[in-house]
Amino acid sequence: MTKFQALAQKYGTPLYVYDFDTIDTKFSALKEVFKARKSLICFAVKSNSNLSVLKHMAHLGAGCDCVSIGEVKRALVAGIPKYKIIFSGVGKRDEEIEEALQNDILMINLESEEEMNRVEMIASKLGVIARISIRVNPNIDAQTHPYISTGLHENKFGVDLDSAKRMYIHAKNSASLDPVGIHFHIGSQITEVEPFREAALVLANLLRNLKALKIEIKFFDVGGGIGIQYKDETTVDLYAYAQSIFAALTGLDVTLVCEPGRYLVGDCGFFLTRVLYEKNNGFKRFVIVDGAMNDLIRPSLYQAYHAIDVEGKEDHATSVCDVVGPICESGDFFAKNIALPALEHDDLLIVKSAGAYGFTMSSNYNTRTRVAEVALEKGEDRLIRQRESFEDVIALERAYL
Ligand SMILES: *Cc1c(COP(=O)(O)O)cnc(C)c1O
After folding, report:
1. Which residues have C-beta atoms less than 6 Å from ligand 1?
2. Span 163-199, pLDDT tens digits
3. What transmembrane ranges does the database entry give (predicted)?
4. What is the reported pTM?
């Protein structure tokens, strides 16, 4: 029996498995290319927010990039030091801002002038000084899927250069704001260095302008977005990526902040699902599995490709099929027109590169219970999230009968 077959038997399916050793390798590789400068790697919590994953990040020395107060609290619970936590996001509520300030995190990343005014007001009310950074939208095409592209003027994120400059001047003169950072995040699953290089140049120039105005920014935050290999795409060369940022920063004394999500956890994750049935309607072969779009929505949402392995049948003859789940939606699929061997009830499929935006995007659609998560570390496996029960799913509902 293979390792994955044993895990499927022990914990049941569908199941997420994360190899923490892979996270270590990825983290070290990034730290290594950044070593010429002070750097802080803030893991993007939204990509995989399991507390054990965050605790592992804390252990590696990472901080966290959070996009809700819930994520900030997760990071704190997991032991991420408050001075390594960044709070980003286009729509922060007053209570979220207040709680972030009370927790004294590293900085709040502002995405509009109005938001700056609210943060200023709340900080003044609390009698604290809010450390802020500003998310600048450099209007650069990251050449990725439109749903995960964020650095164009047509996207809702960040502010344009002129507004950013105005905001920094305002913040510098405010008794309740301390402008410490500058930030861009132009999209996700970016496979080339060029968009990063262009964005870094635009922001470094702004930084020089600010310096001339005696506004000293300490943190240069290049966001996340580093792509991984799902199929046969070549992806970002880390060394070239780091060098392009260093080149933009020549002469500037700043700490480099990077917020990778997918890069750190994408490849560490495997989604295990068992075959229920095969069916052929005369036109098409379907493999129906026990996992579904509520467990892993990336194929349905972004037409994302995930490679699928069938252990133990590698040398069998294959034919083309769609791998689909039990949910009542035609969009419920993991793969279309891929070649797989003939399969039987209980055969195990391994959907690869499922560690980022997998479990965190899962739901209870069709009253399916969210699946269990397991960590693999130095050959040992442990449960890091219990499978939900039907009772868990209905626990917060009130039925007035
Ligand atoms: C989503 C997000 C990230 C992480 O993106 P990846 O593509 O997973 O690396 C980083 N920073 C911000 C502000 C984000 O919204």
Report:
1. 44, 46-47, 65, 67, 88, 185, 188, 223-226, 259-263, 356
2. 999 999 999 999 999 999 999 999 999 999 999 999 9
3. none
4. 0.96
